[in-house]
Specification:
This protein is of the alpha/beta class and 342 residues long. 39% of the residues lie in helices and 30% in strands. The chain contains twelve helices and 14 strands. Strands 6-7-8-3-9-10 form a six-stranded mixed β-sheet, with helices on both faces. It has a four-stranded antiparallel β-sheet with strand order 2-1-4-5, covered by helices on one side. Strands 12-13-11-14 form a four-stranded antiparallel β-sheet. α6 (173-190) links the parallel β7 and β8 (193-198). α3 crosses α4 (114-128) and α5 packs parallel to α6 (173-190). The structure holds adenosine-5'-diphosphate. Adenosine-5'-diphosphate binds next to β1, β2 and α1. Residues 11, 13, 18, 20, 38, 40-46 line the site of adenosine-5'-diphosphate. Keywords: Amino-acid transport, ATP-binding, Cell membrane, Membrane, Nucleotide-binding, Translocase, Transport.
Length: 342
Amino acid sequence: MITLRDIYKVFQTKDGPVRAVDGIDLRINEGEIFGVIGYSGAGKSTLIRMVNMLERPTQGEVTVAGRNLSQLHEKELRKARQEIGMIFQHFNLLWSRTVRENIAFPLEIAGVKKPERDRRVDELIKLVGLAGREESYPSQLSGGQKQRVGIARALANNPKVLLCDEATSALDPKTTDAILDLLVDINEKLGLTIILITHEMHVIRKICHQVAVMEAGKVVEQGPVREVFRKPKEAMTKEFVKQITEPEETADAISHMLAESPEGKVVQLTFVGEETERPLISQLIRQFDIDVNIVQGKITKIQAGSYGTLFIALDGKPEQIEAAIAFIRSKQVEVEVISHVE
Ligand code: ADP
């Protein structure tokens, strides 16, 4: 659906050239939710803005739905952009217009006549769950509702692609989850291809199929979300995996456990969505005659299982502990035995 071929973006600033994007190749398939994660300054915004040519690459080609956007002139581009919706961290709504008028705006620009426009807006309002708020102004809405308007507006012209620029970064965790659920719903119902950029690991884990990890303008690692985070190869990817644990507290708790039971073992379990931690732990206790204590960790529940890292202490006879570890290894859980804390 989307290919970025050998893309560079160099900004000329008074302090000299800044290489915001430094040679990126990506392929994004139709219907995929593709996440790009990286810290601030990694080049994510610049990259996503090149997908709809809000930013023109210094070098390289961007192809969307078979059309090479890099070769289009401004007028042709305006038309091509109607197939690419975009939502933003701070929503970018028109503050003097109502919800209905905000959503109708791109339809007006595309020259859609009033009756058809009204019909389409009604449909979109229903899709994003804003019924009853049609006549509200953005200032009367919560952050989550504002982003719903942003999403409806982005979808107005029936795009094939939706770009999400830190779309949940200004929202609290509960609202973030609701907006991410809405994006999944849209992806499934409309078959829309979604690219999102974020610095937050849980966003990637919750909804993305594929991920690219960015650092200093380059993609350092990419692939299916589960594979990339189950066995991160690059230091930057490991950093993001750590985001879901609290390193200092965890290190303290592990040192304590190791001192308490020198015969026992502390084990790091990384859940990748196929198991849930509670049934696994109760099974360990029942089956292996050992003590199991949760030391630390952060787990996010999803429909099919859990994501996140959990440190547990196993105490009992050495052979029982070994058998328990072998048993965990037979599950879809990554296991690492920790014998000391750095
Ligand atoms: P991210 O979205 O990952 O935070 P950005 O794409 O915003 O990263 O920025 C990448 C780098 O490019 C940063 O060093 C930033 O300062 C620089 N940059 C981004 N946009 C511009 C611009 N319009 N002019 C000059 N430098 C820019």
